[in-house]
Write the structure tokens for this entry.
Amino acid sequence: MRRQERLTAKQKPRKCPKCGSAKVAMILYGLPAMGPELARDLEAGKIVLGGCCTSDDDPCWQCADCGAEIRRTTG
Ligand SMILES: [Zn+2]
């Protein structure tokens, strides 16, 4: 299994740093209340669900096209 290269950004990138796609989705952790708005955002690729198990090193955004995960850097 090949290790994914580590991508980071200070804020949500407008384009995927890997493939250049504009479909960069925010990863939502936990169990969000499913509603029409969330369903629409999931369908549009604006949000992906990260599940409820989180660690200290979870990516913040994910490219909807190539699946690249982007972590938030501080400073
Ligand atoms: Zn991408």
Summary: The chain has a mean pLDDT of 89. Residues 10 and 75 are 8 Å apart (CA to CA). The chain has one domain: 7-72.
